Amino acid sequence: MGRWQELDHTADLALHVWGRDLTDLFVAAASGMFSLLAGAAPAGAAVRFELHLAALDVESLLVDWLNELLYLCETRDLVATGFVLERLTPTELQAEVVGVPVAERRAHIKAATYHMLSVVAVEAGYETEVVFDV
């Protein structure tokens, strides 16, 4: 299972993210982003939505994934709590996402950025650092 750790950043929020494969990496990045953003309402009604994305490379796909999740959840006042990546290649993604109402806001994230972004294959899978504009 993928994991993430918040990094110190002078002006924005940032995460270091690890995953044994791209699916783990993308899910961990989204989970980490939402843990920075807000807490889920414990008894809120779940909303499911589908995402279909295409990009030129894996870094662009990761940024598109995170920004699309931000947009969908901001416009619906949700926090995403479940992710099923039905198809994921370095340039395409198809996923089902589960969101629940926001219980508390911790931060306002404007967007995931390309700042110093590089998805790197390592012995244990993949890792990256993602910086969020706040």
How does this structure look, described?
The model has no long low-confidence stretch (mean pLDDT 93). This protein is an alpha+beta fold and 134 residues long. Helix 1 runs parallel beside helix 2. It has one domain: Archease, Possible Chaperone, Chain: A, domain 1. Strand 1 and strand 2 form a beta hairpin. The longest helix has 19 residues. The chain has 2 helices and 9 strands; from the N terminus they run ββαββαβββββ. Strands 1, 2, 7, 8 and 9 form a 5-stranded antiparallel β-sheet that branches.
Q: Find the CATH superfamily.
A: Archease domain
**CATH top level?**
Alpha Beta
Radius of gyration from the CA trace?
Answer: 14 Å
How many structural domains are formed by the residues? 1
Structural class: alpha+beta
Kindly state the percentage of residues in helix: 25-40%
At CATH level 3, the topology is Archease, Possible Chaperone, Chain: A, domain 1
The gross shape turns out to be globular
List the topology elements.
Elements: E1 3-7, E2 13-19, H1 22-37, E3 38-40, E4 47-54, H2 58-76, E5 78-88, E6 92-105, E7 111-112, E8 120-122, E9 125-133
Antiparallel strand pairs: 1-2, 2-9, 3-6, 4-6, 5-6, 7-9, 8-9
Descriptors for this entry?
134 residues; 5-stranded antiparallel sheet; 9 strands; 46% strand; globular
What's the quick description here?
With 134 residues, this protein is an alpha+beta fold. The protein is built from two helices and nine strands; from the N terminus they run ββαββαβββββ. It is globular.
